[in-house]
Design goal:
By secondary structure, the chain is α+β, with helices and mostly antiparallel strands. The chain has one domain: Deoxyribonuclease I, Chain A (4-Layer Sandwich). 22% of the residues lie in helices and 28% in strands. The chain contains nine helices and twelve strands. The strands form two sheets. Strands 3-4-2-1-12-11 form a six-stranded mixed beta sheet. Helix 3 crosses helix 5. The chain is globular and about 50 Å long.
Length: 273
């Protein structure tokens, strides 16, 4: 059997948006979506749905939600924690940006799925005053980011317990950003930290190169891969393909400025994951 994972920043798609027609055609078993403002009932009828509202930089609710859709069951939420109290305070604050649940899809063991919507702005330095952030902060970046908090939480787990985890979404991090004026900003460093935890980025692994997923306003083609699908190596053994969606269709029909990432896993009767 094939299990399909979809990750997509839908750019504030409402319940009547054309993006849901494409979603239906893609027919994912697990979908981790960002910037959703509404979902059609026909989609709700086919999936278990969990949603949360991220915050703005000032701490107010955003006008969109992060969503997890599972063709199966969604169990208990996973409370991400680290060894540092200040990190835990920030993880609670940004919990809607890190939508984490135990899930079950037929043919698979229980998985932990985390839908990530990492803000394009860092954690406020005002809230970090008096704390030693050196163990969390990237060495080549002056700030602490939500993606750094996520790594700190993942480090608190034994590596063998992370093999059935999926982390997917809009991370707002691309290794090509390190080539911008001013030198490296830690994007490659952050990817290396994820790899050290045993996570493999499926799109890069499958395509053998950086594959852009995001198109900046006023440009024709995507140039940055800020969207990612990470899995542990046990799940990676079942990855058959990972690709982006149809750019001509997504951009031509104004669905989003992000391309969806589609990852297919071939699972046998007795999976080794």
């Amino acid at each position: 059997m094939t299990v399909r994972i979809l990750s997509w920043n839908c750019r504030r798609a409402g319940s009547a948006h054309i993006a849901w027609d494409y979603f239906t055609e893609l027919a994912p078993d697990i979908a981790l979506l960002q910037e959703v403002t509404g979902i059609p009932q026909r989609i709700r009828d086919s999936y278990a749905v969990r949603a949360a509202t991220p915050i703005t930089r000032s701490g107010k609710p955003q006008r969109f939600q992060s969503m997890m859709l599972v063709r199966g069951t969604v169990g208990e939420p996973v409370a991400l924690r680290s060894e540092f109290a200040w990190v835990n305070d920030e993880l609670v604050r940004f919990a809607p940006n890190l939508l984490a649940y135990r899930i079950k899809v037929d043919g698979l063991p229980e998985l932990v799925a985390i839908g990530v919507h990492a803000p394009a702005w860092p954690v406020s330095k005002d809230r970090l005053q008096g704390h030693d952030v050196s163990a969390i902060k990237l060495t080549r970046n002056p700030n602490v980011w939500v993606a750094d908090l996520l790594v700190a939480a993942l480090k608190s787990y034994r590596s063998e317990s992370l093999t059935n985890w999926i982390l997917a979404g809009d991370f707002n991090s691309c290794e090509s950003f390190d080539s911008w004026k001013g030198g490296p900003r830690g994007n490659r460093e952050w990817l290396d930290r994820m790899a050290a935890l045993g996570f493999v980025e499926c799109l890069r692994h499958s395509q053998g190169m950086l594959t852009p997923t995001f198109r900046r306003p006023g440009t024709i083609a995507p140039k940055s891969q800020i969207d990612h699908v990470f899995v542990g190596r046990a799940l990676l053994a079942h990855l058959s393909s990972c690709r982006t969606g149809d750019a001509e269709r997504v951009y031509g029909q104004g669905m989003s400025d992000h391309l969806p990432i589609i990852a297919d896993f071939v699972i046998f009767e007795h999976p080794a994951v």
